[in-house]
Specification:
Blueprint (H helix, E strand, L loop, with lengths): L14 E5 L6 E2 L2 E2 L3 H15 L4 E5 L5 H14 L6 H9 L2 H11 L3 E3 L6 H8 L5 E4 L14 H12 L4 E4 L10 H5 L6 E3 L1 H15 L5 E5 L4 H12 L4 E4 L3 H8 L14 H14 L2 E3 L3 E5 L8 E5 L8 E5 L1 H11 L4 E5 L12 H12 L4 E4 L2 H10 L7 E2 L3 H8 L5 H4 L5
Parallel strand pairs: 1-4, 1-7, 4-6, 5-6, 7-8, 9-10, 9-15, 10-11, 15-16, 16-17
Antiparallel strand pairs: 2-3, 12-13, 12-14
Bound molecules: adenosine-5'-diphosphate and magnesium ion.
The site of adenosine-5'-diphosphate has 21 residues, from strand 14, helix 14 and helix 15.
């Protein structure tokens, strides 16, 4: 079902409350990658151009309680001193985000000391025409992610005071039902921003009504992470190409020797079932025919290309080989829809990046096809290897795009007004 967007609602003179996903990687208070922030700028600029009365922007940034607990435990184990306040300030406080947002927009951005409360109420009521206020990390309030509907709604009611309209551009959080994403949408007219609209169009498109021939390329670390994706795509795709470490679980299930390659003992039966299902449904499930192997997980040891039937003891497969790249490239020719989730190999190390590069090159060559990347590491692989511009869409939501590909309804999307 198509969802209403900022274009479908009167913005002028209205107070806008906007949820974004500014959950960017941080190190000691410094933003490491601002892709998610830049992705929300077109919607913010549109709202400002339309002369909204005010704009209050909110996001989470990590999870202060969870992240701090983990880091304290780690420090204790290593016998290191740990400054929880310094850690959380440098990782969870929105001040660097407010500063960077102001630079991206070329206008001042005010920062609230919390996501809601009397001080924030006052700041919002004093906003002048066209001013932008960023709320502090929504996850500093435990109500945000509470399992108790009443608690979440309590926070949503506080947030609802800050706007007449709710705009959600936080696709990366759309798979979570939180106070600032779902409960708030029950209190204010809720529409999508342009980023959310694009994600729904492309990821939703490849899931709901893909043009055929349709090829899905799946890789990454674990079969267990991707079972539901494979099962869901099996009903739609004409071909499924499997690479990454997950190929070894399939090979092991077929009785092949995989040496030291990563595979999942617990998923062998699942792999067998998936192979059988593909055969029954007439989906071509293509497995690699060669692999790049090494004796260590390292760029500094010798590596070689071998047939997948000739992996020796002590060696591990860390990428698909050139014959597989050719096989997959040929399989992609003529396709009209391509969805890619999961790198073909350990692309982070140059010795094992060629498989992922080769598949990217084959996708880049396709004419008139819709090509979509879903998955956090696949998106960074495409960015890092320089292919992001060659895809119709690179999703900004790792977990959210994965759940979308599994065929799940994303609560953050469902909560928006239907067109
Ligand atoms: P995504 O985030 O796109 O869903 P995953 O998280 O499932 O992808 O997998 C990404 C990781 O899989 C990468 O860090 C990559 O190094 C790893 N990987 C791919 N192939 C192999 C392999 N053969 N052996 C070990 N790790 C692999
Ligand atoms: Mg990942």
């Amino acid at each position: 079902m198509a969802k209403k967007t900022v274009r479908d609602i009167e913005i002028t003179g209205k107070r806008i409350l906007m949820r974004v996903d500014f959950n960017v990687p941080m190190k000691d208070g410094v933003i490491q990658d601002d892709r998610r922030m830049r992705a929300a700028i077109p919607t913010i600029e549109y709202i400002l151009e339309k002369k909204a009365k005010s704009l209050v922007v909110m996001s989470h940034l990590g999870d202060p309680a969870k992240d701090t607990k983990k880091a304290v435990e780690k420090a204790e184990k290593e016998g290191k001193a740990f400054d929880a306040v310094k850690f959380s300030d440098g990782k969870h406080k929105m001040a660097p985000i407010a500063k960077h947002l102001s630079e991206l927009l070329g206008k001042p951005v005010k920062l609230a000391p919390a996501a809601f409360g009397p001080e924030v109420d006052k700041m919002v009521s004093e906003l002048k025409d066209g001013e932008v206020l960023l709320l502090e990390n929504t996850r500093y309030h435990k109500e945000e992610t509470s399992k108790d509907d009443v608690q979440r709604m309590k926070m949503a009611k506080e947030l609802a005071k800050y706007g007449d309209i709710f705009v959600n551009d936080a696709f990366g959080t759309a798979h979570r039902a939180h106070a600032s994403t779902v409960d708030i949408a029950k209190l204010l007219p809720a529409v999508s921003g342009f980023l959310m609209e694009k994600e729904i169009k492309f990821i939703g498109g490849v899931v709901e009504n893909p043009e055929k021939p349709y090829v899905a390329i799946l890789g990454g670390a674990k079969v267990s992470d991707k079972i539901k994706v494979i099962e869901n795509l099996m009903d739609k795709a004409d071909k499924i190409l499997i690479g990454g470490a997950m190929m070894f679980t399939f090979f092991k299930a077929q009785g092949k020797n995989v040496g030291k390659s990563l595979f999942e003992e617990d998923s062998l039966d699942v792999a067998k079932t998936l192979l059988a299902k593909a055969a029954a449904k007439n989906v071509a499930l293509l497995l690699p025919i060669d692999a790049v192997v090494a004796q260590e997980f390292s760029n500094d040891v010798p590596c070689k290309v071998v047939s997948v039937d000739a992996i020796e003891e002590g060696w591990m497969g860390l990428d698909v080989g050139p014959a597989t790249v050719k096989l997959f490239s040929d399989a992609l020719i003529g396709s009209k829809t391509v969805v890619w989730n999961g790198p073909m190999g350990v692309f982070e190390l140059s010795n094992f990046a060629k498989g992922t590069i080769g598949v990217c090159e084959a996708i880049a060559k396709l004419q008139g096809a819709i090509t979509v990347i879903g998955g956090g590491d696949s998106a960074s692989a495409a960015e890092k290897l320089g292919f992001a511009k060659d895809f119709s869409h690179v999703s900004t939501g790792g977990g959210a795009s994965l759940e979308y590909l599994e065929g799940k309804v994303l609560p953050g999307v469902a909560a928006l007004l239907d067109k």
